[in-house]
Amino acid sequence: MASPRRLQVNESASISVVRFKDQKIIDPVAIQELGQELFDLIEKDDRKKIVLNFDNVEFLSSAALGKLITFEKKAKRTGAQMILTNISPEIYQVFAITNLDKLFKIKDSEADALAVL
Amino acid sequence: MSATPPSDERSLQVALPSSLDAYHGFIQSIMEHLEELGWSGSNLFAIQMALEESISNAIRHGNKEDPSKQVVIECELSSVRFWIRVCDEGAGFDPKKVPDCCDPDRLEIPGGRGLALMQAFMSRMEYNDRGNCLTMEKSLSAASSGCSCD
Predict the structure, then answer these.
(1) Per the database record, which ranges form the Histidine kinase/HSP90-like ATPase domain (chain B) (predicted)?
(2) Is residue B1 part of a domain?
(3) ipTM of this predicted complex?
């Protein structure tokens, strides 16, 4: 994949560990770019196991949630597994309020995710 | 607004252009005011969410990013209360007709989560009859209204 602007991707064995460079995921252009970089992971790079590490993320908008939902759908279509980790209590509340904690597989830590992928 | 507001209360009114890249500076200034007034942590997060979702909705869905239209914001800030009214120049909408984003059958549909987030994070939230003005309040003395999706 081309050098990502919004994501830091570390490939480990068959697992892609993705971190977000933006602390606040709110800017529409940034969300669009971030979404495309995520989509490229499964559509161009054919990654099948992905960990999304939210350690650096302090805030995200509903528009960012929408992009994550689209990514989850694409991942499901391509047979890719995805786990979200290191989510702060405030952002976890955002997932819980919108019931997205039931859509996404969420683990406390990256190690927990790697252990089950 | 009260005729004799508490000494720490600040009021402001702004008119923002209908551009999705033109309001983050305003939100940042509100957050800085609130920090100076002693707000912190999850309460600041909640208010940032309400600001982000209400203003972006007004620009995107209300004014449809029409550069000839503005979003008018009135805001009152104190050490214990955040109050805001966000008005756009759109036709308005009926929030009761917005599909429940938390319906298990709709979880995979992107969008439509801003209302649920604002409702959960604010103490009070209501639209005017036309549906183009949103008033919200968060009081430190009142508990959050909680998750709207249960």
Answers:
(1) 17-138
(2) no
(3) 0.91
